[in-house]
Amino acid sequence: MENVITVKNMRESDAFTINTTTSSRELMYRAAMGVFKNVSWGGKIAVVCGSGNNGGDGYALAEILSERGFHPIIMLASDKFSEDGEYYYTRCLKNGVRTESCDGSTDFNGFDIVVDCLLGTGFSGQLREPMLSVIKAINSSSAYKVSVDINSGLSGSSGLAQPVAVKSDLTVSIGYYKTGMFLGDSCQYIGSLVNADIGIKLLKKQYYLISGDELSPFTGYSSVQLTAQQFALEYATDEKEFWRSPIKVVSQESCSSKKIFVVDFGGSRLVVDQTYVYFQSDRASTASEEYVNF
Asked: Computed from CA positions of residues 76, 80, 82, 87, in that sequence, does the dihedral angle turn out positive or negative?
């Protein structure tokens, strides 16, 4: 079983690791290397970067690709940088990596691979321009799409699109799987999903990802099996609250009814009994190799 955690737990665990053992710059490099190791690279590559640390992962990835003989193009959706992001962006410039600005008019159809590093799991609220138009432009392309950490536009907590998200062929989660990767609209936007372990010390274990074989005992215990839409209609007193906080709402119903619930969000299942919360998804797999000290 692999850990699935909240965005808050991820943020706190990341900060603890930075304060005690590993610099944020090193973690950014490891994240980029985790993405590099899980994709078959080739052809014309666009790395589309936003202003935060998710963009920084993209700059570090562009440097790694350049050092290994590829010729990525950094597509800048913002002229702002995080501190660590600017460090790797400057290194890319010194290595001769090509950069261009992008907006909603950018045509990504000329690329074989587009890497989405626009917005990370810290994103909340509604998408605004120019990000909204850039995401739509990425989705309209025929390129193979890779999202780093989470698909830009998806809530890392609820999995709801705000109001759209990058539709990836592959999403490489960084550190640990987050709850939003299995809830809400995630099945509409995430093709396949893999986690890259980068050595972050997890402060609190919360939920677990189980296999299909591990799911079968739950479906055999007279559990209530239904879709998320059915749960919202039949059990939720407040449907909006259910979609915003499905784990909380289903857990409350499980405790009050003393029943096990298996709720299907379009291919990813939330399994809740009175004590534990699990996730199961046919789209998720284990990273190609565990974290090593790079």
From this structure: positive
